[in-house]
Prior knowledge:
Structural class: alpha/beta
Amino acid sequence: MSKKKSLSIVALGSVLMLTACGSGGTSGTGGASGKSASAGGKIVIKYWTANGGKIEEAKQNLVKKFNESQNRIEVQEANQGNYDDLHAKVQAAFAAGNAPAVFDLEIASTGIFSRSGMLTDLTPLVARDEAQLNIKDFNPGLMGNAYVDGKLYGIPFMRSTPIFYKNVTMLKEAGLDPAGPKNWTEFEQYSRVLKAKGKTPMTMAAGVWEYEALVAQSGGKVLSDDGKKALFNTPEGVAPVEFWKKMSDEGLIKFVVGKTAGADADKDWSNQISAFKIGSTAGVSASLEVAKGNNFEMATDFMPANKSYGVPTGGCHLAMTSKLSEQEKEATWEFIKFMTSKENTIYQHKYVGYLPNRLSALQSDELQNYYKEFPQYKVASDQLQYAVMRPNASAYPEVSKVMLDAMTKAILEKNVKPQDAMNEAAEKANKLLGK
């Protein structure tokens, strides 16, 4: 999510960030000097990460593997919390002259970071090392947010989409076909049956990432293609809010709010209070463990369609900061190429659930055989055919906060009409986008 408040990334849209890539992490400072240094004959580079749990474990394992694979470069990895925390710390460190050499950049923040001069344009490096990197091997559905103004600023790393998680056991007990629901109408029908049997169909926190999916499914866009005008108050943008309000009013979706909303929603699903959840593909591995531990069968599916299927991508690129020496730049580039290789994208996909970013990884015998045993991992890749890129407008984090406030108000307050709430939000957003 891009950050702009007089070009300040501190005004991050945390709602967007937390939903767009999975779990929160443990905050850390990552040492005094974030910028690369030389120690013991090795080039030392700092790598700052976001998110915790299995996501962080996978990164730590890959960094260890890289450091042990050669003796010229030492990568020092440090977790900085969620994307909101990480991006603010990178901005502060850059201003102080000690930014990390490489960091996890949430994809919708590419615009503000690149346009404010904080990133290295990777286009020349990719062209030089095309035979080794093979940029065309990355899934085209994941490349949209990597480019800003025709230049490449990020290499897809741990990338995600929201997917639909289902408690198959609860559906079977309610007499429902676990192959569905496939669209909004069926979702409402399933929800009514579950409610009648005393179950909460779905618990969720209203989020901009999920909203972007429903707008795409309705045939609309959140912002104009040039990023200068809000379109979320069009009929296609209002339809998701109207649908969510109806489902909330009738007790078919339980909306939770506050800082722990995402965790609260996940807890309801884990404890079999609710049958469905919308979550990042980054949660597949952990969700399978929960299902096994709580003795229920879990399936994943495309998010239910409206006029069509549609889904935003999320997660992060690996981005290189600017103002590095040539030696530091080359060392950082070697690390980025290692982390995004076919072998390592297969590793992180199986360890966490993030998308296999490379087509060669997706088509490999290893993953095709893996999917026969665990089809839950394959859904996100299949859903990419309906993927849309996230807005790259520099003001989008601030705009997303305005959108979220309007949606939440419309959904939870009986007398607020979705169209009125989104119209008011669009007026505020257009002022931010016009700065």
